[in-house]
Task: structure prediction
Amino acid sequence: MGKMETSKKRVDDSRLSRKNEDMPRLSPEEKDALVHRYHPDYKDEAYAEIRIGANKGERTVHEVARLLEGESPFFEKSVPLSPTHQVDVLIVGGGGAGATAALAAKAAGASVLMSTKLRLGDSNTVMAEGGMQVAVAPEDSPVRHFVDSLKGGQMANDRTLLRTLVEEGPSVAKWLIDIGVLFDREGDGNLSLRAGGGSSLPRLLRCKDYTGLELMRVLKDCVLNEEINVLEFSPVLELLTDGEGTCTGAILKNLDTGKLIVVQAKTVILATGGIGRLHIQGFPTSNHYGATGDALSMSYRAGAVLTLQDTFQYHPTGSVFPEAMAGLLVTEAIRSAGAHLLNIHGERFVYELETRDAVASAVIRECQEGRGVETPAGRKGVWLDMPLVDLMNGEGTLKNRFPNMVRQFSRYEINIQKEPVLIYPTLHYQNGGVKINVDCESSIKNLFVAGEASGGIHGRNRLMGNSLLDIVVYGKRSGNAASRRAEEAAHGKLTLDHLKIFHEARKAAGVMSETISPLLFPDYVNKN
Amino acid sequence: MSRTSTSEKTPPMISVEIMGKKYQVPEGLTMIQAMWHTGHELTRGAGCLGGICGACPTKYRTKDETKIKTALACQTQVEDGMSFSLIATYYPNQKVVYHFEEVKDAKQDLFRYYPETALCRNCDACTQACPKGIDVRTGVWKAAFGDFKEGAELFLSCVMCSLCVPVCIADIAPNQVGLYMRRAQGIYYDEKLPDLANRVEEIDQGKYDAEWERLLSLSDEAIKSEQIS
Result:
C-alpha cells in the first residue's frame, strides 16, 4: 500500500469514532496568529510595491503589479476612433453582475450594449456552488449579517458598501424569486437556509450545489428576452476618455475576426470579474478561463483608484487529485454539513467552519510541516472526509444536496459517499478591486464597476455566499446609477490621451517591463 | 488545470486525434488540456473549465467503437485511440423571446412559444446526448403534460450546452423548454414567501435604524466582541 492509501485507510477507519468529536474554535488571537504565519497574503516575497498610478507605494502581488504597470495594446498605435456603436451604457462582462446591470439599465430606459470575452454567462457566477447569504430568517437581521461579514473581512470592509449589501439582500432575493430563480424550499414551502463558515446563523439561500448555475441561467434568459445587444467573444482592450478624466467609451476586439470595435458610451460599467487565472503565487484556481483581472489594469491606466490590492481569497478546499481536477472547488457547504479535514495521520487540525482565511492557513500549515499527503503528480493536500455528511445527516444526503460534487468526482471513479478526497487551497477570489462608491462609480467620472472587479465590500476576506449577493445588489445599483447618469450626460470626446500620461509615469518611475495588459487569457498552450 | 504541478515523473503517452489530426499526449489530461498540450490556442470552447457553463460541447469516438458520443471537453479525460472535435462552440438554436408578464397560462403558453414540445416521438436521443446525465426525454414529457414541478427538478443541472438540440428528430430545443418550465414553476406555481416580503418591508420602514445607529457608533474592538442575538 502506498503512503496515500495508508493515510486514506486511517481516515476511513477513524470515521465512526470522529463522528461526534468536538473541535475547539480558534480564539481571535489564535486565528490572527495562524493567518499571519501561514496565509499567502502575508508572504512578503510574493509582493511588490506598485511604482506608478493612484495606488503608488502600496503593495500587491507580483502577478498583479506586472499587469497594473503594463502598457496598453494601443500605446503609440494609430487607432481610428470613429465609433462603430453609440449607446447610453456599455456593460463589459457577461457574468452575474454584468447581466444584472444590463437588465437594470435597460429597465431604466437606457440603450445598452454588452461586451463579453467568452459567451454571455461563462463566468465565475455560473460556478458558484454554495449559495447566497440573505438575512431572511425571522431570528436573523441585516445588522447581524453585517457584523458577521465585518468580522469575516478582518474589519477592513467599506461599511457603507457592506451596509447597503446586507440591507438590499432581501429585496434582491425577492426579485430573483419573482423572475423564476428556484431556491431550495423546506417541506412547508419556506426557503431552506444553510450555514456557512463565519456566519452566526444559517443564512444561505441555495439551489442544491448549483446556485450560481441557476442564477446565471435565469439572468441570461432575461437578457435574451429583453433582446439586449450582446457582443460575445469581444473583450474590451482599452477604455476611452475625453482626455480630462471622464470615461467616454471603450475599444473592443472581435476575437473571431481580429477587428476592433469602438464604442462611444455615456457611461461604462466594468463587470469583468476576478483574477484566478493569474495563478497568483503559483496557486491553482477555481475560476473560469477568462478570470484575468482585466478591469484592474484598464481602469488603473485611466487613473482609477484601486483598493485592497494586497489580499486574495484562497478557498480552503480545492481538489488536488486526480490531476485533471486540480483547482476545482469542493463547496464549503460540504463542511457546513459536517465533513472533516484530516492530515496524513488522520487527525483533525482545525474547526472546519472557521472563516476561509483561517481554514486555508491551517491546511497550508499542515502541508508545510510535513503532515500533508503527496499526490502522484507531486501536489500536497489534506483529506476532506465527505462520507461523514451521510453518516451525520442520513444516507443519501450527499446525493440529494450535492449532486454536482458527487457527479464531478464520479467521473474519475471517486465515490465521495464512501471515500475522502484530497484538497489544498485554490485561488478563488480577489477581495479587493476598483474602489467604488455606493452607486458603483469609480474615481473616474462615468466609469462604474460592479461585482468581483470592484473592491471594498468584503474587506480582507469574503464570507461564503456574499459574492452572489454582491453581484445582484451592486449589479442592479450600477445599472440604475449608470442609466441615471446617462440621462443627464452627453456623449464625450473619444481619446486615448490617458495612455500618454500613463506612459510618462512609467518612464519617470523606470518601469521597463514589456508586459501588455489586459492579459485576456492565461497562457496554457505548450510551445514545444 | 494549473501550470504548477511539481511532477517530475512523466506519465505514459497516448495517441489521440483532435479534429482529424493525430497527436501524442500524456495520459490523464482532459480533452481541453490535450488541446493546449498540442498547441491549440482556445478562445472559443473553454469557459468555466468545471463542467458547469456548457461552453465545450464535443463529439468523440473511442477506439474500435462505431458510436459517436457527446461530452463536455473540460470534463472528459482522453484515452488512447480517442478521436474528438470541439465542434459545437455555437449552436444556432432557436431561443424564443417571451415575457412572463404577458403569459396568461404558463402551461398552455408553452405550446405557443415552443409548439414542437407536443411532438416528441420518444426516441430518447436527447437523454443519450446529455453530458450531465439528465433524463431529458422525461423532462420534455413532463413539460408537455403540465407537470412543471417534477419537470423543473429534472432540468436542475442543465448547463444549456445544447447537445440535446441537434439530435431531436422533432426539432425540439429541450434545454429551452426545461428553462421555460423552471422559470414558470418559480413565477407561478411555487408557494409565496410572506416572511421574505415582511423582511423587505421592515427594512423599508426603518425597523433596524436604531440598531444601525448604535452599531455604527462602536469601535472595531467593540464590534468584534459584539454578540447579536
Notes: The domain at 3-38+314-427 of chain A is CATH 3.90.700.10 (Flavocytochrome C3; Chain A, domain 1). Chain A touches chain B through 87 residues (CB under 8 Å).
